[in-house]
């Protein structure tokens, strides 16, 4: 069972997520302890694939309070662990115009730190407004269906 340590709630609003991929995170000891305490922010984060390696950039993991000299920079680049086939697939997709890799959530699975990456395409202001309208209409429909099934007047 995996529970999310941090989620990037803004990502699904700012981007249209087309595919998701799970990747392992290479962390130091104090970073793992800080992550377990929930001190992580994915807001400015993104991932790149260069020279056959994936790197997570811009993710803020606060220094561990009880850590000493082993604490590293809070916003340093962190390696991602992916299979070679996944890296090839991502490299091809990222070469297309408009695609980016966005971290959606960080969690622990069987004791290992994982990050869920979304292959995303940026949304324009008009697209964002349309999505909000669609979501509201969906919620209204669900509410009306619920009331109808209870026998209330719609």
Please give a handful of descriptors for the protein shown.
154 residues, alpha+beta, Small Protein B, Chain: A, 2 domains, two-stranded antiparallel sheet, globular
Short description:
The chain has 154 residues and is α+β, with helices and mostly antiparallel strands. It contains four helices and nine strands; from the N terminus they run βαβαβββββαββα.
Report on this structure.
This protein is an alpha+beta fold and 154 residues long. The chain has 2 domains: 3-123, Small protein B (Small Protein B, Chain: A, Beta Barrel), CATH 2.40.280; 124-154. It is built from 4 helices and 9 strands, in the order βαβαβββββαββα. The protein has helices at 11-14, 29-36, 84-95, 125-149, and strands at 3-7, 15-25, 40-41, 46-50, 53-57, 60-61, 78-81, 99-109, 112-122. The strands form 2 sheets. It has a 7-stranded antiparallel beta sheet. A two-stranded antiparallel ribbon has the order 3-6. A hairpin with a 2-residue loop joins strand 4 (46-50) and strand 5 (53-57). The longest helix has 25 residues, at 125-149. The mean pLDDT is 86.
């Amino acid at each position: 069972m995996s529970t999310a340590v941090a989620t990037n709630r803004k990502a699904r609003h700012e981007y249209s997520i087309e595919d998701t991929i799970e990747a392992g995170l290479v962390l130091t000891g104090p970073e793992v302890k800080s992550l377990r305490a929930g001190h992580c922010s994915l807001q400015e984060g993104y991932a790149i694939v260069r020279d056959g390696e994936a790197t997570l950039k811009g993710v803020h993991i606060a220094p561990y309070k009880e850590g000493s000299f082993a604490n590293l920079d809070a916003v340093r680049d962190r390696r991602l662990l992916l299979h070679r086939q996944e890296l090839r697939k991502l490299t091809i997709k990222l070469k297309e115009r408009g695609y980016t890799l966005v971290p959606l959530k960080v969690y622990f699975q069987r004791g290992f730190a994982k990050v869920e990456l979304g292959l995303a395409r940026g949304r324009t202001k008009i697209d964002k407004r349309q999505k909000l309208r669609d979501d509201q209409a969906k919620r209204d429909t669900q509410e009306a269906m619920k009331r109808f099934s209870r026998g209330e007047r719609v």
